[in-house]
Specification:
This protein is α+β, with helices and mostly antiparallel strands. It has helices at 4-8, 20-38, 46-50, 56-71, 110-119; strands spanning 44-45, 75-80, 83-88. A hairpin with a 2-residue loop joins strand 2 and strand 3. Helix 2 crosses helix 4.
Length: 141
């Protein structure tokens, strides 16, 4: 059974090595792991995790950072009953064989964003905004 420490492995701890994008990706992973652990390690509804009901732009950014986590093998998406679910994935150790990679393209527009908020009754974003970022200073994009 993976521990929080196992799931957070690979996050860069040295701030001098982090770019703004790296900081945001790590921030997203930390909150994915925390929410996953809060849910008794059950995969999270992808939309409940990434959607910011107050800001379309933040939702798009969250989708991007999650896609990087998936690409890097730190998160995975499964689909059940046509609903995507996300969970963190323990990083591979050197020499371990990679799983077969699948790719999915998820798109969003203002209409879909609004519909997702209503359909899934999303009232808050599970990924808090980082202070000092562009999207943290505006509520609409």
């Amino acid at each position: 059974d993976d521990t929080i420490e196992d799931l957070l492995e690979g996050i860069v701890d040295d701030p001098s090595e982090n770019t703004e994008e790296g900081i945001r990706i790590d921030h997203t992973l930390k909150h994915l792991v925390l929410e996953y652990c809060k849910s008794d390690k059950k995969p999270l509804n992808y939309y409940n995790f990434i959607v910011d009901p107050t800001c379309f732009g933040t939702t798009v950014e969250n989708m991007y950072y999650v896609s990087v986590l998936i690409f890097e093998g730190k998160a995975r998406i499964i689909v059940e009953d046509r609903v995507p679910y996300i969970s963190p994935k323990k990083p591979k150790k050197a020499g371990e064989k990679d799983e077969k990679k699948n790719q999915a393209v998820l798109s969003i527009n203002m209409y879909k964003w609004d519909k997702i908020i209503k359909d899934f009754n999303i009232t808050e974003c599970l990924i808090p905004r980082l202070p000092g970022t562009v999207s943290s200073s505006s509520s609409t994009s």
